[in-house]
Predict the 3D structure of the following.
Amino acid sequence: MEWTAWETDYYKRHMEDDLKGAMQKAGLEGDTRIYKAMRGEREIDLYRCLCKEEGFLLPSVCLQDLQKICEGSEEELEPSEILESQCEGWAEDCRFMADNRERLFQREITEFLFPVLMNTEMNVELLKEMPHVEKGEFSVALNLAVPTGEKSGTVLLVSNQMLESWGMELETALEMAINNPWFLNQCSSVSNSEIMRRVNQQIEKEWCGMFQIVEPEPERERGYIIHGDHVSCHAAILNQKFAEKFHEKMGEDYLVAFSGNGEIQIFRDGGDIEELQLEFKMDYEAFGYTWDWVSGQIYRYTKERGLEEALAADSVEKEKVQPLVPALKR
């Protein structure tokens, strides 16, 4: 059920108290920080828990995300309940970090590095505490995926203090993360043609073959959706071999969009760029969450220039497009 204006104002006024209450209930020690940020053209409210352990970071929680979750739930759900669950997870992460502090600040831990893309403007405060390279609307930062069991692990944000303790340059750490085999191997792709085939199978099952979605067979694949089996796959497109693999599959340069559910969408280079951007922004507003938001822009991948922002046709002559990827070592 959609929140009324009164409910939105009420939850906004009580968000900080609810967060502190959830922290106390979970045994999570530390302070809180509240700030506003811009997600595209929309202002959002972000709330951070500051970890008591120096050198360790926790992500933010967004009020607008809580609203979307509550409104989309079939059951009556309060923001405080979501915060309690979130704080329990953060408290577990903090205990893990405290118990493994010495290990996390040793260089050997970098075998678990992987890259993440973070919207620059929306994460401006958090990025001050993280080693990163700014690439316009998004920044490339680092996370750790530390195994804690045979099929489990803990994902942690990499802080400036961690990088310094490893005695490693940021460029070296980024190169290691972008080429991490574990990170790349957990990225799975499915073609648009395969998705259409599965849709038709489901229609046949539910409607006894009464109709099918028929599309002409393309000479080449129209596109792919790429997702991460364990962690966000957005930054995989920065890996040269990974990006070139899809150049071979598509048979030409292609367009890239970072969707709001942590996936990469690849599609043929054609059509109106501004229209595509509007379509993806609307899709994100309907289904995406702040923690997955990277960019509302459409990007183009070419073998010669790597990943760069795709401009509308009438803007190409006005602004020279600067490549985003070549500045990173490959």
Notes: The two ends are 48 Å apart (CA to CA). The chain has eleven helices and 13 strands.
